[in-house]
Structure formats: C-alpha cells, structure tokens
C-alpha cells in the first residue's frame, strides 16, 4: 500500500473565476496535512478535483504515479481515494450495516460474508456496534460523521480527504474522531483535512498548507504557517 499524491500545475476555472490558479503540491504517503484558507480560497474545489467530482481545467493529479484525471469518484474510491463531505452523505433509511455495505458490495469480486465481517470490525472500532441494525436516521450529527468515516474505511483507502469533519460535533465525540484520524494515519493512510476549526488542524497536523484566492501562500510546520504574515493578512476581514 502506498498513498503518494502529486498535484501538478493544477488550474480550475468556473466561467471567469479561477478558483485554483496553478497549484503544485506533493503529499508523501502517510502525511497528515491540514488545508486552511479563508472562505472562497479554493479548499473544497481542490478536494473535489482530487476526489474526481470536478475535472481540472488543466494540470493533473497523480496517485502513486498514476494519473487520476477522467476517473469518476467511484473509480477513484476503488483506486484508493476516500472522501467525506461537509454535509454528511449517509443513507438515512438504511441501517448502519447496510450503509457500510453499499460501496463495498459494489466492488466486483467482494463476498457478502467478507464485507459483513469487515463492516462489523469497522463498526466496532467506531463504537457503533450496538446501533448496527438501527436506521442511520437515529444517529446524531456526529455519529453520522463517524458512520461516514466507517464507509470510507470499508474500501481501505490510501488517501482520505476530510471536508469539515468536526462541524457541529460534540467535543467528546470530536476527541474520539481525533483518535480515529490519528490511528488511520498511523496505519499509513495519507490524510488531507479541511477544517475551519484551527484548534483541530493545528493539534492534529504536522504540515499545514494555506490557500488564498486559489494560490498556496504558505506550506510547512503548523507553527510557521500560523505566524506567516501572508496567512495573517489573508485571514484579516474573513
Ligand atoms: P473554500 O472551500 O476555500 O471556501 P471553494 O473551493 O468553495 O472555497 O471556492 C473557491 C472559489 O470557486 C470561490 O470563488 C467560489 O465562488 C468558486 N466556486 C466553487 N465552486 C463553484 C461552482 N460549482 N461554480 C462556480 N464557482 C464555484
């Protein structure tokens, strides 16, 4: 398993607006990177391109040296790129177990028994076992985010993109999510974390990349990025 992500001269335009203006970035396998920047700086657009939800206008993204462009989110998920959403995407009327199996069973050659075993093991690590047969509508917002983590884990990703995973989550559950993110990362998964919650970003990540108007304005250790004049200026008035 590897999980190196390379972004080369990436540009994304929406009509006349250039949301990403020629970004170069390399994430080594096993890095845990915080992606910050004021509203509208291009964070979600970048995740959407890496996850295959948007096509880039130009430039490319490579996962372990393989070009990702033109692949759908489902193809990329199977290739090893997992993605969570700001607004959680779980199937509310399905049970937790059914939610866990949706993506996994769609992978050719997966047996139901093996998928269920894996789902049980993952639900166990997320402390959701006792809710496995409940509909996902019974979950709190934070638990739904945990279930989304679980669904991503089912496909054994090499790279995970987390978009605002802590929004509206109770502090206790947030700490539990930190532990899960750290465990995931310790097992070698490359993680890119977008969050407005600076405490979480600076507490979890050893590398922070700051965007402003679609460009990288700082990239390095959290302490250095936090004190960078360009970053302080970008956040003024945000
Ligand atoms: P962030 O996640 O940092 O808040 P976004 O990636 O959402 O920033 O947005 C970056 C820029 O791209 C903004 O100017 C935004 O208005 C624009 N943008 C994002 N998505 C779209 C879209 N689907 N259509 C048009 N413009 C978009």
UniProtKB/TrEMBL annotation:
Keywords: ATP-binding, Nucleotide-binding, Transport. InterPro entries: AAA+_ATPase, ABC_AA/LPS_Transport, ABC_transporter-like_ATP-bd, ABC_transporter-like_CS, BCA_ABC_TP_C, P-loop_NTPase. One of its GO terms (molecular function) is ATP binding. Pfam families: ABC_tran, BCA_ABC_TP_C. SUPFAM superfamilies: P-loop containing nucleoside triphosphate hydrolases (SSF52540). The keyword Acetylation does not apply. Residues 5-238 form the ABC transporter domain. The keyword Nucleotide-binding applies. PANTHER family: AMINO ACID ABC TRANSPORTER ATP-BINDING PROTEIN, CONSERVED COMPONENT OF ABC TRANSPORTER FOR NATURAL AMINO ACIDS-RELATED. This is ABC transporter ATP-binding protein. It comes from Pseudogemmobacter faecipullorum.
């Amino acid at each position: 398993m590897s999980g190196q992500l390379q972004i080369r001269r990436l540009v994304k335009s929406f009509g006349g607006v250039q949301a990403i203006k020629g970004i170069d970035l390399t994430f080594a396998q096993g890095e845990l990177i915080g992606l910050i920047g004021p509203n509208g700086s291009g964070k979600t657009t970048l995740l959407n391109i890496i996850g295959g939800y948007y096509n880039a206008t130009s430039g490319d993204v490579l996962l372990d040296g393989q070009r990702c462009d033109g692949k759908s989110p489902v193809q990329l998920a199977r290739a090893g790129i997992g993605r969570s959403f700001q607004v959680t995407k779980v199937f509310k009327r399905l049970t937790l177990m059914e939610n866990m199996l949706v993506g996994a069973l769609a992978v050719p050659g997966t047996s139901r028994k093996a998928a269920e075993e894996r789902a049980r093991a993952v639900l166990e690590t997320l402390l959701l076992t006792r809710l496995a047969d409940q509909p996902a509508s019974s979950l709190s917002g934070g638990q739904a985010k945990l279930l989304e983590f679980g669904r991503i884990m089912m496909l054994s990703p090499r790279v995970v993109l987390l978009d605002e995973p802590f929004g509206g989550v109770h502090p206790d559950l947030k700490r539990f999510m930190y532990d899960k993110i750290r465990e995931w990362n310790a097992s070698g998964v490359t993680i890119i974390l977008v969050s407005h919650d600076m405490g979480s970003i600076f507490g979890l990540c050893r590398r922070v990349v700051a965007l402003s108007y679609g460009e990288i304005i700082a990239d390095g250790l959290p302490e250095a990025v936090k004190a960078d004049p360009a970053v302080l200026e970008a956040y003024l008035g945000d």
